[in-house]
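User: For a benchmark we're assembling, each entry needs the component sequences followed by a predicted structure for the full assembly. Here are entry 17's components. Please fill in the structure.
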Amino acid sequence: MNFDALAAVLMGLAGAGHCLMMCGGLAGALGQHATWRQLLLYNSGRIISYAVAGALIGAAFTHLASGSVHGLIYLRLLAALLLVLLGLYYGGWWLVLRHLEALGKPLWRLLQPLAQRSRNRTSYPALLAAGMVWGWLPCGLVYSALSWAALSGSASSGALYMILFGLGTLPAMLAFGWFSKTLQSFLRSQGFRQLMGLLLIAYGLWTAVIALRQLFAH
Amino acid sequence: MTVKLPEPPAGSCFHCLQPLPADGGYTIRLLDRDYAVCCYGCQAVAQTIADQGLLHFYQFRDNRNPLNVPLVPEELQRFDAYDDERLQQQFTRDNANNGSRETSLSLEGMTCSACAWLIEKHLAPLPGIDQVAVNASSERVTIAWQPDQTKLSTILKHIAELGYRALPFQSASQEQDFKKRRRYFVTRLGVAGLATMQVMMIAIGLYFGMVSDLDDSLRQFLWWISLLLATPVLLFSAQPFYLSALRSIQAQRPNMDVPVSLALLSTYIASAYATITNQGEVYFESVCMFTFFLLLGRYLELLARQRAVSAASNLIKLLPAVAQRKNQDGQLEHVAVADLQLDDVVVVAAGATVPADGKLMQQTAYVNEALMTGESRAVAKQVGDQILAGSVNQQQLMTLQVTATQQDTVLASIVALQDIALSRKPKWVENAERLAQSFVKQVLIMALLTFLIWTWVDPSEAFWVTIAVLVATCPCALALAAPTAVTGAIHNLNKQGVIVRNADVLTRMESIKTIFVDKTGTLTNGEFRLLNHYQHATELSIDVLWSLVQTLERYSQHPLAQPLQQLTTTSVAIDHVEVQPSFGVSGQWQQQQLRIGSLAWVRQWHSQFQPQIASANVFLASETGILLELQVGDQLRNGAAETVAALQQLGLTVVMLTGDRAELAAPIAAQLGITDVHAQCLPADKLALLAERQLQHPVMMIGDGMNDGPVLAQADISVSFAQASDLARSAADAVLLRNQFSAVLPFYQTALRSQMIMRQNVRWALVYNIAILPVAMLGFITPYIAALGMSASSLLVLLNSLRLYR
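Assistant: Structure for entry 17:
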């Protein structure tokens, strides 16, 4: 098992509390009478967008990753840093990551009219399209995951990492309303988010230590 | 469509309801108003929602306390049934003083003390909640609230939101609950025990195999077997730890089960991974053993707690469910005890248990109040006396008029008191818990550091060294150290008839240097008797004198007159009897004027008279001379002298306070060996004396709960005697139910002992945890040794506390 892929899944899973707060209610609002299939389609659209973004980023950094070993290590350090920042963000200790979301804002402005157009359409392709648009919402969580796609080395594996990440977020998004209230209250609780934050920070630090070790070994 | 948007809670993001960043975040304009949002993400989502005309989403969602309150699901609506007043009467008590209502609910789903904290914190902000005390041992919550401000169903719903079920307490179901809990642990223990034995055998085989070059495929086969055996242990046996860890995380108070769960899960996953890939190391035996020993510890703790609690709950359980009631036409009918009303007349058969508090309606009866007082002696009752629910009728059929039922009975209030004592945590327990908690955080940080450093030094070892650190330094022993000692001490004291209202006294006991004791009713029985007499008038027979005394004294209400009313069967005729309050009684017998009463009263006739008995306090006189002097006093309690001597031997100063005259106090003090006596004290004097001594050191006051209220309140530890029936009125920290002064000694000793044991526990746990940390971080300990060390350390603490139960 690849530990970078694990990081991607973990980020998605750890985001459960965040996703529930940010978009959980939204999923409910958009698909108030959503069937199981509709929800799945909608979320598939979202994950497809992630995969596309992952492929783009993966391809863009292919050269860097294969060109020099050091480049890859620096990239890995950057990813580790983002993971730590994400952990701090989850725990509510340092919210600097939200500034990263500004990066996605222009893109979202372009896409937003599309979102409006897909409104009130319940055909399956329209739902998929709406989900795809949703995938481009400015989200620090997604951008941190993208940093892992960047160091994956190829477009295909970049896409794979982002799909894994998307699958990690799926339980929280898909099962909103299906989860018991107790579980929801647990996932939303500050304590859970802090624990997840700590976990991500630990993972980030660990990655950084390994990367630094490689850096000094060469 | 016009939509009115709800206000988000102050300081929260309009969209996601999470706290806003310190600098205020961003804003979004919706319906011509600016709202604060926390990030670009929320801004974008909110904008999208608005653009799509979905603003009603904000309208209909729940805006309250966003971080842990979800919507109330419909299945919880049935709690509304409990708002019914008639139903509530059966399990609540109204406090007339402040209009609050109190109830004791049993909780399902408690796993640890974090649960208690979570519930208390969650209920406190509700309007009209006066007090919430969760007793983690008996899994009960006592709530006092203002019924006009908050409905009971609201409280129940709030508890349910956290994932617990709170329902009116029924003792029968609690016993079942205990059984369920025990079975819960026993089955898990059984599975873990069986698996551990098998896996250990394999592990030992493998260790030896390492030396003697084991066949590789055989080794892999054994790994797979271990994996299969360890899986039920991990998934089934270790469940309690995961649950408790999750709860504690939700409460933001990570407890020791967090590192335990982390260690168990990661050891298992890494070992399974090693088995599947057939490389690396496996530690299935550590998973099994760790789970087994931890479960064993929890199980023992559970048994200990249940022993402490069942003493209390057994009380209620013994009440009959059905009573025999006499209806209007004198017929007996069987009714449920729950349906008994005030003033009903019930009949209790010989050998049966009294179902409700009541007034005795026949001349005499003998009852056994062992349930309340622990004293299994038949107590005689007269007509009109109060008979307590839970007493056993010793002789013939008994008829009672009901004065209190169900939750209002004295028995229920004893149980409630014990509950409260167990649920109010003494400060040092809280301190120890806080210490354990900060330890958990440090363990997690240390484990992370260990992991990072070892990754740098030697990545192949990093994982297992970290696991060893997590396991070895888990502060389980520290977390058990204090609560087990308190529970044990309270249980022990209850067994000895000492009800501790406030477990803090256990801590304060050590610093006590002086014990103030009230004389009447404390050192003495408070029952006056004729102790001594001296006959001046030799021309009259003593029998005639007795008869004169008793005939006159029968007119008096004075306490000293009581024992003088039944002295002889001879009767004399006395006319013109008059009572002079605060002096005595006068009358005419055979043309003679007689007076009986105080010294001052007879000195009006014989001003030179000096009593023969120094402490005589009742005098009979005629106008010609003193006829008889009498000493009426109260008797020392059984064992009072020995107890005072023992306390003095322990280095305590015993001081006697009394409102009586010095002549009356001195002989009693001499009998008891008390040298420091303060007589003729008014309550204010007692208070001043006590306060003065308190400037030097903390002071314990033992007194009659009724009259010494202010003095008791001033003392650092207050102890009172109470007949069980007065319990509710007494405000002392501890109540001696058996009416024996000698119970003070075991109270003192048990408190000191609990302190000692607690201190040993904490010291041991700290020494172990601090000593093992560097060793584990340096990588000298395998997970398997770590599990053994930690388990042994908590079992040791537990066994040490169990000594208090004896």
